């Protein structure tokens, strides 16, 4: 029986030399792999109140939309700067090979709503931490975070756990 990790391919030196890119598009392309990932990402949150799912740019949109559908709740994207229409709030952060800014609509989350954060990969934790800050600024309460891949050597899990948030990842890959 295949595991989620079996569906993920590694692309060497992408997007920069020395990076081992964990490509989940091969997982998404397989209906059994995709179903397996969504079911396993949801499993620790069964029975918990979740009002909205927040997906982090960009593969988190694919996963977050599917998870929101399974839960029959709303979906909210956290996007790269300049991609959302309307009024937004922004958060700058550092990622494993650069800097970025993410944004969320300023009316996307109501105070007290229970939020599940979803993305494909946890590396340094920069993107997830920026998403957390945006959600907290809007008054959302984070139920947890869920990822397909954790890269333990880059320390993202520790960053999020040090902030007091639970981290669920389906598999780990060593290296960067």
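Sequence proposed for the structure above (176 residues):
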């Amino acid at each position: 029986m295949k595991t989620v990790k079996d569906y993920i391919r590694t692309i060497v030196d992408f997007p920069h030399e020395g990076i081992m890119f964990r490509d989940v598009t091969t997982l998404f392309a397989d209906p059994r792999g995709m179903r397996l990932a969504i079911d396993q990402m949801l499993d620790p949150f069964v029975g918990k109140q979740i009002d909205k799912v927040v997906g982090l740019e960009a593969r988190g949109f694919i996963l977050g939309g599917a998870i929101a559908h399974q839960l029959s709740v709303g979906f909210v994207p956290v996007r790269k700067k300049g991609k959302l229409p309307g009024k937004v709030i922004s958060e700058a952060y550092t990622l494993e090979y650069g800097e970025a800014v993410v944004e969320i609509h300023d009316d996307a989350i109501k105070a007290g709503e229970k939020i599940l954060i979803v993305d494909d990969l946890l590396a340094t934790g920069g993107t997830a931490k920026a998403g957390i800050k945006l959600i907290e600024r809007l008054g959302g309460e984070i139920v947890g975070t869920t990822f397909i891949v954790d890269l333990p050597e880059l320390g993202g899990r520790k960053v999020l756990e040090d902030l007091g948030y639970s981290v669920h990842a389906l598999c780990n890959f060593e290296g960067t």
